[in-house]
Amino acid sequence: MHRVLLLAGAGLSLLFSTALCRYTIRDVAFVDLGGDGWTLRAEVPEGAPGEWTTTLKRIARASLADTNVQLIIAEGEKDSALTTSLVAPDGRTLVLDLPQDPDALARHGWDELDAVASSAARDRFRARCLEIHAAVVVFDGKDAADNLRVRGLAKEAISQSLATLAELPKPASAPPEILAVAFSDRRKERVLHWATGADEEEADDAHVVVLYGRGRRMGPVLAGPVITASAIRQALLLIGQDCECELPRSIMRGSQIPLTWGKEQSDRAQQVLGFDGRNPMVKQEIARIVAREATSPNAPDVLGVDPLGLGYHEDEIVSSQEITTQPPGETLGAGDQPEPVVASWIVIASTVILVVVGLLVAFLVFSARSRK
Q1: Short-list 215, 179, 177, 178, CA closest to 197
Q2: Which of 177, 173, 164 is nearest to 273 (CA)?
Q3: Would you list the DSSP string of 92-155?
Q4: Taking the model in full, what pTM does it have?
Q5: How many domains does the chain have?
Q6: What is the CA radius of gyration of the chain?
Q7: Is 153 in the same domain as 276?
Q8: Who's near 81: CB < 8 A, 6+ residues apart?
Q9: Which of 67, 86, 185, 359 is least surrounded, with the fewest CB atoms within 10 Å of its CB?
Q10: Domain residues for 325?
């Protein structure tokens, strides 16, 4: 009888583990849970030509379509300068060099706005992110010998992690890859370099950032002499963990880069990952997991990743679909969010599992008694 109960308990544990381990930390990074949006903020002084604002909106509709970046037009002081900045979710700003003449903006503004969410390195990442486990982004420094050292450490970390990655709950179809950005391309990739936080380190040093999912960063920026194979490897191994594990939830909300992600990528993600990250029920389930604190008192303080801060919200917004006006104090897009939905399939699945296990236990107990 005791053996029967132990067997039933083990079966119940296995069944529940299968039901609860549906998503990994890597899976979570492919779902837009809100709060990760970037803002292109234009401060337009009172009395500035309306044609400039109209032109900026027109370009933004095309350049920012299918991105995690929204345009906000804010009215500045009468004699203030006309400025445009990219604002990170944590409040950091990067000033963009947009022409202040409407005609010049119409001719030359496209490249600057296109570069907000797209670049050669980010396009390479987006093309491979669904297949690879993660990308080890290496921003080369000035020292060629040190660049070779850093790339060698990245290769070593990937090689050391392969056996463990193959045993993860949902291994990716391809191992991590190195995405190298030459020092001479820093200007072309300045948005990516700044968005990852690599610009806050010594400018001439090489930097390493681990990106996964839809461009989410795992762990801190590694710079210069503190770059080690073990630190890179640790970040890679965390990415594949079950999201129901007892790690701090903050590691799932590392900063995200500005990135183009349209319907084609979303459809392909559904095919590759086996779930639709656009589904409100999926979003709610993952949001519940991410919001829950780690339950273990011994859960490690992993990699020092901080939760994201609050994003901007102002008066006038251009999204990829339309221009909307937002009343003061109202959260962006609040009216467009889906109503909370109870993930009923979890309740149904749990009930079915309990019934099946209960019947199994009853049958085994009855069989044991019959033999006696």
Answers
A1: 215
A2: 173
A3: -EEEE---SSHHHHHHHHHHHHHHHH--HHHHHHHHHTTTBS-EEEEE--S-HHHHHHHHHHHH
A4: 0.74
A5: 3
A6: 24
A7: yes
A8: 43, 45
A9: 359
A10: 38-117+311-336
